[in-house]
Each structure stands twice: as C-alpha cells, then as structure tokens.
Amino acid sequence: MKVIAIDGPSGSGKGTIAKEVAKRLNYTYVDTGAMYRCVSLMSLRKNLEENEKEKIVGLLENADIKLTNEGKVYLNGEDVSDLIRTPEVTHRVSKISSIIELREVMRKKQRELATKDNIVMEGRDITTEVFPDADYKFYLDASVEERTNRRYKQNIEKGIDCTYESIKASIEERDYDDMHRPVGALTRTNEQNYIDSSNMSIEEVISTIMNIVGE
Length: 215
Ligand code: DC
Prior knowledge:
The structure is a single chain. The radius of gyration is 16 Å and the shape is globular. A hairpin with a 5-residue loop joins strand 3 and strand 4. The strands form 2 sheets. It has a 5-stranded parallel sheet with strand order 2-6-1-7-8. By secondary structure, the protein is of the alpha/beta class. It has a single domain, classed as Rossmann fold (3-Layer(aba) Sandwich). It is built from 9 helices and 8 strands. It is about 50% helix and about 15% strand. 2'-deoxycytidine-5'-monophosphate (DC) binds next to helix 2, helix 4 and helix 8.
C-alpha cells in the first residue's frame, strides 16, 4: 500500500491539503490530530486529570475512532467532528499527546490503517516515527503571522469571538509543545519535501505535491 505522509505545525493547512490530495488520488485521508483530539475529549468527559496516563491510554485502547474522507470524525458511533475542535479539547490535546505510552498505541492504530488502503496521513510525527519509510514525505509550513491570519479569518467567518493576539499566542504555545515533546516531536529532516505555503494558494500547494508524487 502507498503512503503519503505530511507533517507540519498547526494551522499550516495540512488538513485542507491532505484531504484534497487524497481525493484526487483516490486514497484514504487520515487526520491523526483528530485521533488525539478524540482521546482528549474522552478524558474530559471522564473527568480524568492530564497526568492519569494509564487511564488515558486505556481510553484509546477501547475506543472506536472512524475518520471519513470528508473529514468527519466518529467516536464510538457518535459524530464528534465539531466537539473535538473546542478550545478546551484543543488545549488539553497538546498536553496529553506527550504521553509516550499513548503515542505507542496511537502509532500502532495508525500503521494498521495503511495495511488496508493507500493513504494520505497528516500529523506531527508521521514522516519521522509512524511511517519513516513512507513513499512520499512532506513538511508543510507557514509563518506564524500567516497561520494566525488564516485562523483569525476563519473564526470571524464562523462568528467566533477572538483577537489576533490571543490566536497568535495559542499558535505559538502549540508550536512550542509540538516541537519540544520528548517523543514524536515535530521535526524537519532532509528526507521531507519542504513546502512553505505562506505565499502560496491552496491550489499551488496541491499542484506542488501532485507533481512530486507524479500525478
Ligand atoms: O493537527 P491538530 O491540531 O488537530 O492536532 C491536535 C494535537 O494533537 C496537536 O496539539 C498535536 C497533537 N498531534 C500529535 O502530537 N501528533 C500527531 N501525529 C498529530 C497531532
């Protein structure tokens, strides 16, 4: 089975790009951030503390997480697509994704997905830890300012009350957590195709990837 792995910081457009590339190639799209977000949501619902590692890992072991190519997320049959994007879930996921044992179970689940289908998988450690031998590896980047602008515009369109500064601070905090976790940290390597999308349109990024994968 073929694997296209895409890593990058939050707000770099990985989701939009990976979803569209998967659609054009007729591959399965896998949003690994959504999988971590499901565990975060479950831990909040069970009133677990962030440091109750064993219980948090247990939640994942017993969870049925289904991702669709359209980006919908089902947790034990319930549509949680919107619930996993609340600020509360987002804040916690950044912390609990540092649990090493959780990452081990998560990786196993993620690797299993590539035994059935060709996949486009996006996250933080896909090119380095989950599929270091992926057929194609990409690191999708954008400046903090551009990522803040994009998220700010999205929020305003959705009617979410926020300030530019608060979004920038939260992106910077997540970048720090993502790049400094002891295992599965977001890292740039020579093997990744590096794309800085700060001044590129979505279509330009997609065409760049499609050219590299030879379609
Ligand atoms: O891509 P996202 O913002 O939905 O990811 C949510 C969180 O999950 C983010 O804080 C980093 C973490 N994550 C991770 O540690 N490893 C991955 N492969 C994907 C996401």
